[in-house]
Amino acid sequence: MSRKRASAVAAPRLLRRYVPVFAALSDETRLSLVAQLIDGRPRSISQLTEDSRMTRQAITKHLRVLESAGLVRGETAGRECLFELEPEPLEEIRDYLDLVSKQWDKSLARLKKFVEIEG
Amino acid sequence: MKLPIESDRIEKHIELKAPLARVWRALTDHREFGKWFGVNLEGPFVPGQTNRGQITIPGYEHIKMEVIVQKMEPERLFSFTWHPYAIDPKKDYSREPSTLVEFRLEAKGASTLLTVTESGFAKLPAERRLEAFRMNDDGWSEQIKSIEEHVAEKS
To answer: Which of A63, B23, B61, B132 is deepest in the core (most CB within 10 A)?
Structure first.
């Protein structure tokens, strides 16, 4: 119950953020970048490029898309730019999918009752 | 934290104390589907064809549901694509990307194991995602209450 209220209060902020997040994640390269950063440790563009078959330029472009969606934060450290994951947008879309998930729970509970009791 | 790649799909498992044939009928007979889902579908489910209906849950009768049936493999797999929370009756959602809903059935003794997956959220255009969220946030808790009351009245 408290969770439901919390999400209602947070709605206007979520609405603004929600749009670019799924779009940013609808790409395999960007998903793999997020997966690499999921442990919370910042990584340089060079480190993130190492594990991929893409150019540094292409990886940078993908990182900028993630950054504009609020999914990563880039900070210049010396000559390198370090990228770090921002977990909040991921948590928000997970909350959204939790809600969809709960709708299915309700529907399936009705299906269960229907086939088991109404025969 | 889970890898975000899992975030584009919802998967549900439920054991139903009813034989495969019974569950299959509840899922694929449009009148039976309508009874538990809460929708008044206009005709039978036919692979490749669109099926429409009005939601019958009190307070939500203005909402239209539209599915395109994908696969019907008897007592095994039933799937359709739809536009989750296509709530504006004046808007045409038919050209927009949709999510895929799959019902997979498996016998377990006299019971049926049902797996439901809904996938493809990340393909939704931005505007629809906003609307889907709004629907969830403002409407769904009320809708659940309506469903519970409706079911209680019937039983």
So the answer is: B23
